């Protein structure tokens, strides 16, 4: 326990959290040491646990008992404590605009604790608190070495792959029949196996039921604004799509000091909620009989300085680009499009010096950057609570899908122990 104690105390110092009550620390340490003791008995063994399996496109997930194989070379087995649902899971579950791959264990926004590590893993150990991330960081390729990219050669997102890269096999099975992985994370399972490069090691004092949303949506939106759109203080920013990702992009605009944040959504129910995130004006494209880019150009004397698209719909992507000001406007695409979507715009828009960019995961490198985003939450610079609108036990995971499909709330936390 000596090492663990000093590690935790170091973290406390680093985030100036002396106000943590001794009692909290003591109870945390007891919980933590129980986890380590309990877990050590499963190292090297196949674990049988519950997972929500998507057997067919669009059919409710079924909680099944699955076998989870031990982690292989450069892999880590993680006990998931909390997971949440992002719209990307829903797209691949519906498989309307994406390649179908079933049976599959979806899920990519989560927080968990390392149960065991495979050969070659040196920077994670049982008991470490981690956030799995759908795109990875090998730390060795040209992208990982570049300050400008998070598109790791080895571990960048591949939505069509359902197996581990080490041996092309799945670590999940039911009675010997393999079940496919999803974006290298598959967090709708009590235990999952993830490549070490797709795990961000975070402050063990950070509450996993909250910071789990930094594993995808919130970091994506925040980074899309802060790292890619980079609005200047006093500028105007349009956000297309006011789900959790879009509102995190709005939060980024607020942090950057934007003076006008224009929220665009087809669902007017989102507008009330969005006020809490600093969105100052609202546009529902359905209320106008002209393209929304024209509406925004009129509102802003020629266009916004920055726009961030967080809908996944091609029309919104095109509008988000065309609504930025000529000369300096920058649009950033975040939404995951239908696989056959084509972006069509006049090349004159580029000649007129509008810039179009896109991003995965807000350009954050999962292992190098995400621990600091967690600290932003711990230091109260970033509010996560306002994104967490619902909670369900794992046994009711399909309710989280219903809420997302109805457009209700932002993030639904799924508790694995309930
Ligand atoms: P969400 O469903 O909660 O929110 C999307 C919002 O967009 C909804 O409020 C919806 O009403 C609105 N919308 C849909 N079509 C629109 C249109 N044409 N014009 C205006 N508004 C429209 O989803 P979310 O979880 O916030 O995710 C948003 C998008 O970001 C999804 O496409 C998701 O797949 C994507 N995503 C991308 C990354 C990345 O790294 N690039 C990461 C996470 C999520
Ligand atoms: Zn890499």
UniProtKB/TrEMBL annotation:
Protein name in the entry: alcohol dehydrogenase
GO terms under biological process: formaldehyde catabolic process
The species this protein was found in: Tagetes erecta
Residues annotated as domain Alcohol dehydrogenase-like C-terminal: 244-375
Residues covered by the Alcohol dehydrogenase-like N-terminal domain: 73-202
UniProt KW DNA damage keyword: no
Names of the cofactor(s): Zn(2+)
A Pfam family: ADH_N
Signal sequence extent: none
Matches recorded under PANTHER family: ALCOHOL DEHYDROGENASE, ALCOHOL DEHYDROGENASE 2
GO cellular component: cytosol
Catalysed transformations (reactions): a secondary alcohol + NAD(+) = a ketone + NADH + H(+); a primary alcohol + NAD(+) = an aldehyde + NADH + H(+)
Family, as annotated: Belongs to the zinc-containing alcohol dehydrogenase family.
Enzyme class per UniProt: oxidoreductase
EC number: 1.1.1.1
